[in-house]
Amino acid sequence: MEQQISLREVFAILKKNVALISIITILAIALAGVLSFYVMSPVYQTSTQLLVNQEQADASQFTNQNIETDLQLINTYNDIIKSSVILEQVIEDQGLDVSVAELNEKITISTNDNSQVIDISVRDEDPVTAVEIANATATIFEEEIQVLMNVNNVSILSPAVLRDNPSPVAPNPFLNMAVAAAVGLMIGIGLAFLLAYLDTTVKNEQDIETLLGIPVIGMISPIAEKEKSKEAKSLALNRREV
After folding, report:
1. pTM of the full predicted structure?
2. Does any domain span residue 198?
3. Which of 30, 53, 103, 233 is the most buried (most CB within 10 A)?
4. Any idea where the Polysaccharide chain length determinant N-terminal domain is (predicted)?
């Protein structure tokens, strides 16, 4: 019985504060939309691919051992690509006004399991800059790895290309607005329950029973204004007659 009453109270609180909850949710969605469309800068992404493969003069010399060696080196290559040795040269080559740490944040290295292909993805607010950074990183790494590790097993498989009318990958306005709607809804519901918790006014006999811990045995019904005026007139007439 107590559970049913609790649920009834919950629905009563939500029903009473539905306007407040709706306003907060709508404001959150509107704020997310304004920030996504007019404040946040669009971010573009491009990528280039490197192939890690031993160069063999004779194809018959290409063995599974060579492939296994290349796969073991790929994790090391991933670390070298994002090292200061490579990124400092990229910054100098492209004349970038960023630090090595900032450039590192723009670059993402990924590989698939048992794949000899390394994917270098770059994000930037300028699509042209993103393409230039990706290609410069791949080219400089291809040259420097020969000196650093005395190997010649890296080649550019697919350079980054600037597409016509590139689309930004971030921000995602509709996703941001959906998240804002969920957050606004939770904030609105939380605020509604907080206001209900802070409201200590006595509104009915049930509140009296809860507050004092004693049963209510009777109550005085409110007198309507019309009835009050009638009683006042009746008293006035009685006084005149007396």
Report:
1. 0.69
2. yes
3. 103
4. 4-93
